[in-house]
Amino acid sequence: MKRFLALSRTMHGILDLAAPGFCAILWLGDFPHWQIILLSIFTAFAAYTAIYALNDLVGVAVDKEKFAKGGMNAGYSVEASDMRYPLAQNVLPYRSGVLWFAFWFAVALVGSYLLNPAIVFILIAAAILEVIYCLLLKVTYWRTLVSGLVKASGPISAVFVVDPNPSPSFLLLLLVWILFWEIGGQNVPADWNDTLEDQRVGAKTIPIQFGTQKAGLVVLVTLGLTVITSLFLPLISPLPLGLPYMIATVIAGYFLLLQPAFQLYKHQEGPLAAKLFDKASYYPVAQLAIISLFALLF
After folding, report:
1. Which of 113, 132, 178, 267 sits at 20 to 30 Å (Cα–Cα) from 159?
2. Where are the domains of the chain?
3. Which parts of the chain are beta strand (E)?
4. What is the pTM of this model?
5. Which architecture characterizes domain 2-297 according to CATH?
6. Mapped to the 3 state alphabet, what secondary structure does 184-244 carry?
């Protein structure tokens, strides 16, 4: 089972569940019915499990090429299993990986349909975008935008769970917030941490194309925009999210995003990129905790 969990980066996937949870409570201004919560958690878990597995299934040839020319890096604390990339390490048969993906994707499709049929189309679009993201590794660094769209699919789906006709402008606000966080806190730091492996295969990522100084600036700017955008999220919610909420969200953004981003920009060291990735992974968890507290109080 460890091989399958490593294929789906389950620890990271569990942390990712916090973003849809935050968006649902923010949008609704309350907790959904417990039946909806349970079905949503199970469906989201299935979707993240499938999409992360899909990433390795599509990218297995490139991953094998990377590791054939050198060892595997240490990774991050949220996905530091020795069995990372089990397909590339030949510890999991490719057919087994396909069956694992197919099972969880089918579960996610059924759950999505039960929650809101519109989510089925979002899930299928996310899978297609994930394939495109993997195929663009050697093509363009702009694939980071595709990564942001994939990551935003979960939070956007959560909105459709609690509101069948959401405001397009508020959806766009959520999308921008997630996009900035994914680029600065996840995608670029991950590519930075994988620079040596990516150079072996001719990958085109922001750290490789522009160097560490400009990559650090991209991280700092996008995470700064993440924190700024978070201050506009109360516009979405029926909850009275005033100054106390603003202070709480800025504190979370400072310690989990801005402070580690500044250290990375200042020192431009690989381990600091992995440290930022780890801390940024807990940013949605912090946001979920904050909005849950306000939902309970009001």
Report:
1. 132
2. 2-297
3. none
4. 0.95
5. Orthogonal Bundle (1.10)
6. HHHHHHHHHHCHHHHHHCCCCCHHHHHHHHHHHHHHHHHHHHHHHHHCCHHHCCCCCCCHH
